[in-house]
Each structure stands twice: as C-alpha cells, then as structure tokens.
Amino acid sequence: MRTIALVVSTLTTGLAAGLFYAYSMSVMPGLAKVGDRTFVEAMNSINKAILNGWFALAFGGALVFTAVAALLHLGAGHRTALLWIVAALVLYVGQLVVTFAVNVPLNDQLATVNLDTGDLAAARERFEATWVSWNVVRTVLVTGAFGSLIGALVKS
Prior knowledge:
Blueprint lengths: L1 H30 L4 H14 L3 H20 L6 H33 L8 H36 L1
Helix pairs in contact: 1-3, 1-5, 2-5, 3-4, 4-5
C-alpha cells in the first residue's frame, strides 16, 4: 500500500505541476497577445471548464494521496522517504495557499465583469500580471513537490 500511495501521489502531483506549467508556458503567453474582451472571455471560459472531475482528481488527489503516503511511511524503516514526502506535502500546501489566497479570488473577480458594459481593460489590468506572477510561484511550489516525491520513490 505504501508504494501504491506514493506512486499515485507522484502521478497526481505531476499532473498538477504539468497543468500549472502549461499555463505558464503557453496559455498565459498566448492570451497576452489577444484583446481585452477575448482575454476576459477566454479566462472565464477556462475557469469554468477546469472545474471537472479530472481536475479534481489531480488537484485534490495530490494532497490526499501525499498525506496518505506520509501516514503509511511512518515508522523507523521509512524515515528517509518520509522526509521527502513531508517536503512534498509542505510545498503542495504552499501551492494551495497561493491558489486559494490569490488565483481563485482573481478568477472570481474576473467572472463578475460584464462583457458588454464592463471596463474590460481595467479588469484585465487588475487580473493578468498578478495572476501570472503568482501562477509562476505555485508552478515552482508544485514542481518542487513533484521532485520531492520522485526523491521519495528513489529512497523507498
């Protein structure tokens, strides 16, 4: 069970890292080149579409499976792997703090903008730079968590 939990934790965390990386390397640079209306409309559409079971499995599963892996590695014979797993858990929780303190509230604010009567340029200005910067932070955090879990796999 320890190995299965650790592998599933690594897989789901890797999927979350890949998602944030994709935003950093393609989605946001691509949207940076479009007009304000397209930007607001596209981000709102993406933010609705991402709320699905597959996303929940990776995003929430990474936390749950990493916590389970940590619990299953308690004991003298698994201390080295446990240290890597705990590091991953701390980094992943850091990413969650950023996501729920910064990125989600920005998404929610952007969702309130009326595409026909709202000031789309001002809405984008309040959103884009801050969201992109903090997405880089959470990308680094979750990638660090992924790397830590790889370390745990090597040591287990």
